[in-house]
Fold these 2 entries.
Entry 1:
Amino acid sequence: MDALVRQHKYFKEHQQEFAEEHHGECVLIYKQKERGFFASHADAYFEALKRKYIEGEFLISECIRPEEETPIIFHSRLVHRGVSHAPYRSEQQNLLDCG
């Protein structure tokens, strides 16, 4: 299992506890253990760098209750497989190219 996936799983298992005790703060998780709570994402990130944690192996997440989470959806109009995006193509044609 990927390190970041393990950190996220640990966060989800303890999310309610973190939200009750540190609501609104950012938690730094490394090797399935919380390594600190910080006022901002940047503070947590710089602490991770100071401790020489490897990027992609630590997680920083805001301590909020699950019902407060807002899903983030990313949309892209890029076509992959080395095909450049032609602006005159229809959205349907672009979707078919991604299949």
Note: The first strand starts at residue 26 and ends at 30.
Entry 2:
Amino acid sequence: MGIAAKREAWEIGEITAEIDKKMTLKGPREIKSISIKLFMPIDLSIEKLRVLQMATEDCLVIRSLKSSLKVTIK
């Protein structure tokens, strides 16, 4: 999201995240799923939110994680 905002020369303010990690119960402990809840400034326009959402969905880290565990972004 930061790269997309910088490319558009947007000041997006503070963004925070709440992360909930679930672990497997059997066998060697592994991460089963991650849920990420993003908190964005309320004054962002719909256009900016759409661009940032697309950037999040196309994020290399998210794509890599999705190949091995369930990832939910809200």
Note: The chain is about 35% helix and 30% strand.
